[in-house]
Amino acid sequence: xVTGANRGIGAEVVRELAAALQGCAAGGVVVxxxxxxxxxxxxxxxxRSSMSDTCGGGARVEIIVRTLDIQSKRSVDDFAKWxxxxxxxxxxxxxxxxxxxxxxxxxxxxxxLCVSVNYRGTVRVCEALGPLLRPGGRVVxxxxxxGTLTGTSAxxxxxxxxxxxxxxxxxxxx
Length: 174
Known about the structure:
about 170 residues; alpha/beta; two-stranded parallel sheet; two-stranded parallel ribbon; 5 helices; globular
């Protein structure tokens, strides 16, 4: 399962996972999650068209598109119910990639949205899907230094040189 997978890093992770599964005898399934179903379908079709139809012994790699908005508890709960009923043997990999980018001129509302999606949403997904991981399953969370508020990052936004005001930084650090 890859969240936030209709473009960018998420779409590339889906492509790479599908390519890796294509090289194994059993094939497999990659679930591409997107808030926008149409955008997810377009991304999945682009990935499918870049791959050959079968791997070595004829096993297929399936890319399934599911709508998932990690900011919505209902969306995450519904998705977890689908996963649980569809994949009785559990999950091998969960890649948390869904996020919102912050605006360098953001105020409190934008900072709150970033925390709500990028932190709380990711935790929500891990809490819902973590119990569904197979023994030895893996969780990978994609992140960046832009979200760092302590000034220890090389990112000028995180260091308080641009972007976040001191009041916003202190509200999140407190």
